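User: Write out your own:

AI:
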Amino acid sequence: MITQRQLFLNHVAQTNDAPLALEIERAEGVYLYDKEGKSYIDLIAGISVSSLGHSHPDIIAAIQKQTNQYLHTLVYGEFILSPQVQLANLLQENLPDHLDCTYFVNSGTEATEGALKLAKRYTGRRKIISCNKSYHGSTHGSISLMSESFFTAPFRPLLPEVHHIEFNNADDLEKIDEETACVIMETVRAEIGVMPPSNNYLKKVRERCDEVGALLILDEIQVGCGRTGTLFAFEQYGIAPDILLLAKAFGGGMPLGAFVASKKMMDSFTNNPFLGHITTFGGHPVCCAAGLASLKILTEQKEIIEGVASKAMLFKEQLKHEAILEVRNAGLLMAIQLASYDQVLGVIHECLKTGLVTDWFLFNAEAVRIAPPLNITEAEILKSCTILLAAIDKVYKDERRKK
């Protein structure tokens, strides 16, 4: 009989020629379980998605309740659907006053696409500024923001009028001018291997955008919803964006994204032309119910986000090895810098053997990604670090023996 693994390889489209191919039977808390019952600590939370762990009972209950009421009804924005309304209202209560209108979509890259359209429509400008080695999604407009030709060359021509600057380089801000519709950047850069802004950089970006009338779009698809130790990462830097992008953890494990702006700005989608942006499944009631439950947990159980800093410190205290060049972090988004991709790949596979899932970064393949559920316990952190250090030690010693 053909195995499920073979059916997966034959009929499910692949993104690379060596998928991890764990056959997951169930998931709970920080653990994934395969069909043999083996447990794996999910130290990347589905790439920063399952920030409250897998199968959180409050989120599951909200999903089940909504499925008993209704699923899809009509394209987004036409009917008054309670999960959307309640989630948008709770979001507004936890954001600066001007970020009072939410457009729900299905994913992070769709949030990027909608925000770019909104910036062009509202400003009447066409020039877009993004950062070198940035990642905002994989649809056509989103990959146009990338500077790396390795990922973009096969899909050219891309969106025109995209220009790149260096993150944390204030001199580059002169490229933001009166023709610029928007500047889009991650509040904390993730795929480069965790790079927070430094030297009041975001304040300087905000000031430059205000000077020339450009909109500032902050991408918190990975770093929002408590990941860096505040509900939104920009809270730590004394500024606020004109448009905020959310996804990943925002949906509580369900596919949900959003771009958030002022009502005045968002209303520009209603005319010239009307239906300026439209989605069939964006803001799906079940996804919004899950997102609402997740956001309620994060805002009501304040100890979860307040505990991020101490948990990150525990990781950093434990992760000491001669092969580790540096451990960088923004809250519980962490990068263990090693010397080579071969070391990282070796560590990933050794960890899998001993029951832990980790990963690398798109623009820093020499670093191991750590982004666990925010409610991971201290005991689970210590167990994770024991597995990680054993894997690093084995790979490092094997490499030295070969030399």
